[in-house]
Design brief:
heterodimer, A: 494 residues, alpha+beta, Creatine Kinase, Chain A, domain 2, 2 domains, four-stranded mixed β-sheet, 16 helices, B: 63 residues, mainly alpha, 3 helices, elongated
Chain lengths: 494, 63
């Protein structure tokens, strides 16, 4: 039987400093994080012991490729926040990795909390250096000049599920889900055929179907095998073929639909074969067609549109949910999925209150109509970029949201809470609460362990290898009975 | 939700959409005004020199 789909989203944010195009992005990103995190949190180290980006899910370990140096991240700024997230500098970008969430609704809440943390960091940086206020942060995936940075989803998957099954069923799903997960982009990049506007920020950057890399030769299915959990029981599926979303529904659907598809794969529920003849070409074909009518070829000779293929997955997921116990608000996912596909099919612009790429396209078209702008006008590229500004004063997404043009799924109160508190029903609760209660006694932490210094040798490592354990129901009583870290260690040993 | 419901409902919605909508004409002006107001509001926060701003936005590649 399928295992619970614990999930999380990691986002590399774009960063710029107004009037200082020669700024150092690592320094600026470090400034943001140091300004935001309290000193007690800054001294807790990240524990890299279990990290292994060169272990391949297909069952081998690769030597570092020439010219693709494995970055020594040690020494770069890296904090673990009381909401269970990791906030750090990665590849010259500030990155927020959300805590583990048990359902797509929470996934949206803790993803949005990340945006607010970045926004608060700019404020905090402004109090340290005069130029801090000049920093802008963008939740997008491309600079429009061929450089891309990622928004990756992670899902807990049963180790027993053969990796080729995941590849087989996920590729057609990921290629076609862009119609609701895309964030929209003016123009094309990376040697793609030029277009005025396309559905996805990321599609132009995928070059192969399956592979280990994430920064070049990007694969539709990434094979990195770092479970950050019990490796005998679990995989962490690392999905790199997705856009960072501003609107809440795309994030909700992105997580919710993938969770259902993964459950079906684990349960061998999908008998159909949707294999695409040319997935890498298809991901561009879908992205480059805002009418959503273009068809892509299946290996059995059929040609289907992205929407038609998504209807197939939705039909299967609906059937699956009737016959199986699905958690995580599957009914809401299924109904939103259906509404979006129906809307896109009748008229894509009808989804401007739900989907990022449509909201952006409608805004761009309004500007074009009012000011008579051609698609090559720089103002349109500026609108494309500023749509993603996380500042709620400057960000155009937030202008639309405040004008009532975008549907919300979560409340500002939920987001506020999530900035400082972990989800209560995953191991993130134990991590976050330990950081809140005992940060001075924690030497290092990672997704799957906390290392305590309780004032006597040796250091004590508390593994958290089960993502579904360490919940509030499981450990709150224990934490309440342990006023100091030493008490916690003693009580854990008891 | 039933598995076959999606397709049937889809067709029904299409039929409904082809019905004449008498109110559409009278609200069209309001809608245009609303869009114009929104664009004016956005103009106030848009970075001033679009060309320079967009040109100088260069990122180191990431994952």
């Amino acid at each position: 039987m399928a295992i619970p789909k614990i999930c999380g989203i990691e986002t590399e944010y774009g960063i710029s400093v107004r009037d200082h195009s020669d700024f150092n992005p690592i320094v600026a990103s470090s400034l943001l994080i140091n300004a935001y995190a309290k000193p007690a949190l800054r001294r807790v180290k990240w524990d890299y012991e279990e990290e292994n980006p060169l272990r391949d899910a297909r069952g081998f370990e690769r030597a570092p490729a020439e010219g693709a140096a494995v970055e020594d991240e040690t020494g770069l700024v890296n904090v673990i926040l009381p909401n269970g997230s990791r906030y750090y500098v990665d590849h010259a970008h500030p990155e927020y990795s959300s805590p583990e969430c048990s359902n797509p609704h929470d996934g949206v809440v803790w993803d949005k909390a990340g945006e607010r943390i970045l926004e608060a960091s700019i404020q905090a940086a402004g109090a340290i250096v005069p130029n801090g206020q000049g920093i802008s942060i963008y939740k997008n995936n491309s600079d429009g000049k061929g450089n891309s940075y990622g928004c990756h989803e992670n899902y807990l998957v049963d180790r027993k599920t053969p990796f080729p099954n995941l590849v087989h069923h996920l590729i057609p799903f990921l290629v076609t889900r862009q119609v609701f997960t895309g964030s929209g982009k003016v123009g094309a990049e990376a040697n793609s055929r030029d277009v005025d506007f396309q559905i996805s920020q990321r599609a132009d950057f995928f070059e192969v179907e399956v592979g280990l890399e994430t920064t070049f030769k990007r694969p539709i299915i990434n094979t990195r095998d770092e479970p950050h959990a019990d490796p005998e029981r679990y995989r962490r599926l690392h999905v790199i073929a997705g856009d960072a979303n501003m609107a809440e529904l795309p994030t909700f659907l992105k997580l919710g639909t993938a969770a259902l598809v993964l459950r079906m794969i684990e349960d061998d529920f999908i008998a159909e074969d949707f294999t695409l003849t040319e997935p890498v070409r298809a991901i561009r074909t879908v992205s480059h067609d805002p009418s959503c009518k273009a068809t892509i070829e299946l290996s059995d000779g059929r040609r289907l549109s992205a929407i038609e293929l998504q209807w197939e997955y939705l039909r299967l997921a609906s059937k699956y949910s009737e016959d199986n116990d699905t958690d995580g608000g599957a009914a809401d996912v299924l109904s939103a999925w259906e509404q979006v596909l129906e809307g896109l099919e009748s008229d894509p612009t009808s989804q401007s209150h739900r989907l990022d790429w449509v909201a952006k396209l409608v805004l761009l078209e309004a500007y074009r109509a009012r000011d008579g702008l051609g698609w090559d006008h720089p103002k349109l590229r500026l609108i494309d970029l500023q749509y993603h500004d996380v500042s709620r004063k400057r960000g155009l997404y937030y202008k639309l949201e405040r004008a009532g043009k975008i549907d919300r799924l979560v409340t500002e109160e939920e987001i506020e809470w999530a900035i400082d508190h972990p989800p209560e029903d995953t191991r993130a609760y134990f991590r976050g609460e330990c950081l809140r209660r005992y940060s001075r006694a924690i030497v290092a932490a990672s997704w799957d362990a906390l290392i305590f210094d309780v004032g006597e040798e040796p250091l004590r490592k508390v593994p958290t290898l089960e993502p579904g354990r360490g919940t509030k129901a499981h450990v709150e009583e224990l934490l309440d009975a342990s006023p100091r870290a030493g008490d916690l260690i003693a009580n854990l040993g008891a | 939700m039933s598995s076959g419901g999606g397709q049937t409902r889809k067709r029904r919605d299409k039929e409904e959409e082809t019905q004449p909508q008498p109110e559409a004409a009278s609200t069209k002006e309001d809608a245009t005004k609303e869009v114009d107001d929104l664009l004016d509001e956005i103009d106030e926060v848009l970075e001033t020199n679009a060309e320079d701003f967009v040109r100088s936005y260069i990122q180191k590649g990431g994952q």
